[in-house]
Amino acid sequence: MQHEVTAAQQLLSKKGTIVEEGWARRPLWKYDRKEIKASALKIKEWDYYAVMSHEHKFCLTATIADLGYAGLFNLAFIDLERGKAVQIDALKALPLGSLRLKSDSGDHSIAWKNEKLRLAFSRKGDTRRLLVASPDLVLPDNRVGLDADLTLFQPPEMQSMNIATSWKENRKAFYLNEKVNCMATAGMVRLGDTDIELHKEGTFGTLDWGRGHWTYTNRWYWASLSAYVHNVPFGFNLGYGFTDRSPASEHALFYDGKVHKLEDVTFHIPESGYTDPWTFDSSDGRLTLDFKPIVDRYSSINMWVIKTVQHQVFGLFSGKAILDDGKEIILKDVYGFAEDVFNRY
To answer: Is 6 helix (H, G, I), strand (E, B) or coil?
Structure first.
């Protein structure tokens, strides 16, 4: 359990299986779409960003994804004061790699637009830039229009949570993922006709970068937080539910740019509903959390062969986390999110 990969290497062998499964503190696996032994319909590639303003109590999320059957483009605004979320989605039939999402999370630029939504993601060196806009999006306070220009800072010494695992039933099906938490973020967000300046002291960005060949039906659980705790950047990435995780989990704490690895974590979601309080705990006793939901960003699609049911819940985390050196981090009502997602595609 928890095999750490430390050497840069090709992700896949000539047979199409992962050369060395496990987790890493940096993106060490070299991904090449052409080496995947599967139909393009089964290849999944996505870049997802979440920017949380603790100062102004809102979150922006943006997605560009090539899911084989469809390209998915999404922009969401979550108003944590009002407890409401709005979003705009767009689909492109059968992209099959034509979106040209990059094979690594290094320097790149990608953009997509239609008449209602514009998305542009880029990275150059230590900074990432998000340009997103939806001029007709009706916000929770009834203002109309969202436009943002944000810069996320990722210094070279910052570690991230990386994992490469496969499915027991098909070792050629794999999940390669990098989660980058606690990226200080600055820029401007226009809500309706109001400009809001975001400062690095009160805003953090998170990246979910994923590539893989997936099996048809999956369900996963994911939780993420990035914030200042006692003036030090702290966060966590918790995720499980699909692929064989016996080589490694993707549960990790982030403190001052370093990864502190956890064992198994369990989400305790109440049967009474997603907006009732949750709890979380880890098998190694290093994480205990209470979660008070504010808003459930729910979406559902059922189109015969394609079905997805998503509950991304934003709220407040409280509890205790223990770093590798035994240092205790105490959280009290810190904004983050947790999700339960079923996908069949």
So the answer is: coil
